[in-house]
Write a structure and sequence with these properties.
heterodimer, A: 226 residues, alpha+beta, Immunoglobulin-like, six-stranded mixed β-sheet, five-stranded antiparallel β-sheet, 35% strand, globular, B: 166 residues, Rna Polymerase Sigma Factor, Chain: A, Arc Repressor Mutant, subunit A, 2 domains, elongated
Chain lengths: 226, 166
């Protein structure tokens, strides 16, 4: 990023505006420290935030793959990963010590300590170009996988995805401090770059609240075991 | 290493900022110093005791001076370490922010005043304005864009983009 900033006056101007505003708000210095720290320590670890203001929770990037590319590793180990007709879909993978195991359809379970990885299909007809992946547990807590929500002061937006009927990997596995019980994992495909806070506000009325934002909501439930 | 980063970040950023007024350049140097600390055993072993923050701050200052020479961004700077610092760029920014706020409708002007001049949190400012925090956050996002346009387009007293302005 800083390499780009050296050469792009437009981005330098924007950085100046945002950075200066950051210095004027309470906690701005800490925000800056966290923001820049992600650039320094990113390869080693990754953090995420529990939703609805529950605080910072450590997660672990157990495997670093590639950011988004046509998948072969996941498919070879975990089944077809085929798209659900013309709709986009998500595949969930448990990352265990012995490899990558695809989580089966409803009724599957995972251990609380297991990291999860994802791939998605996004058939061209649907034309979605943004994706958010998160889980909601029985207590209504929201756990963000994509985008990462690392700083409570931030409000990251959906990740950008490409169209394609072939599975594409999201390149990190992520572990959240899940509690035993039922969780539902959502893949929210949209044509807009929604923000995580916007989605959480919509979720306050249940998953149906997300439909007001437009897009396509994929979901699958898992039992989390100790 | 992360603890060292947390404890010394302000000192390192302050040292880089004493030379580089442009935030993108200042933060590039901060990034460079910590990355080097993380990856270079030679650098770590060159610390001969004393306060870590002061040592890293000195490194950051030298890196900032190197950066200025390398990038040729000498216009507002002196390469002399003894030169008194110029006016605080954040003060200049505050003045521009006030000028920007004067052009906004009363509600949005109040938001700027509460958040960026009075230094309230989003929750405090939202309560003071009788709106939800998420609404305030949406307004804030729009304001940032408008402010950016204002500063760039209006940098020399030219026209301001209308966006959320009155």
């Amino acid at each position: 990023m800083f390499q780009h900033l050296r050469q792009c006056q437009r981005c330098r101007d924007r950085y100046r505006t945002y950075s200066s505003l950051e210095q004027l708000v309470p906690g701005g210095d800490e925000q800056a420290r966290e923001r820049l720290g992600r650039g320094v320590f990113r390869p080693a670890r990754r953090r995420a935030v529990w939703g609805v203001g529950l605080g910072l929770a450590t997660v672990c990037a157990a495997a670093l793959l590639v950011v988004v590319r046509p998948s072969d590793g996941f498919r070879a180990r975990g089944g077809s990963g085929a798209s659900d007709g013309d709709h986009p879909s998500l595949s969930i993978f448990r990352v265990a010590a012995d490899g990558v195991t695809r989580v089966q359809r409803a009724g599957s379970s995972m251990r609380a300590s297991e990291p999860l990885a994802f791939s998605f299909t996004n058939p061209g007809a649907a034309g979605y170009d943004h994706l958010m992946v998160f889980a909601v547990d029985g207590h209504g807590r929201v756990f963000w996988f994509w985008p990462a929500w690392e700083n409570p002061a931030d409000d990251p937006t959906a990740i950008v995805i490409s169209p394609g009927a072939q599975p594409m990997e999201l390149g990190e596995s992520i572990r959240h401090p899940l509690s035993p019980g039922r969780i539902t994992i959502y893949g929210f495909f949209s044509s807009q770059a929604h923000h995580v806070r916007q989605v959480e506000a919509a979720l306050a009325g249940g998953p149906a609240g997300l439909t007001a934002l437009g897009g396509y909501l994929w979901s699958e439930s898992l039992d989390v075991t100790p | 290493m992360e603890q060292i980063y947390r404890e010394t970040f302000q000192e390192v950023r302050g040292a880089a900022g004493s030379v580089l007024r442009e935030p993108a350049d200042r933060d590039a140097v901060v990034h460079e110093v910590f990355l080097e600390l993380l990856s270079s055993r030679d650098l770590r072993e060159s610390h001969r005791g004393g306060k870590l923050g002061a040592w890293l701050g000195a490194i950051a200052k030298h890196r900032a001076l190197d950066f200025v020479r390398r990038e040729g961004r000498l216009t507002e700077l002196s390469t002399s370490e003894e030169t008194a610092p110029g006016p605080d760029p954040l003060e200049d920014f505050r003045r521009e922010l006030i000028r920007f706020a004067a052009r906004l409708d009363p509600q949005r002007r109040r938001l700027v005043e509460l958040r960026y001049i009075a230094g309230m949190t989003q929750m405090e400012a939202a309560a003071a304005m009788g709106m939800s925090r998420s609404t305030l956050e949406d307004w804030e996002r729009q304001l940032k864009e408008s402010l950016h346009d204002f500063l760039v387009v209006d940098g020399e007293g030219k026209a301001v983009k209308p966006a959320v302005l009155t």
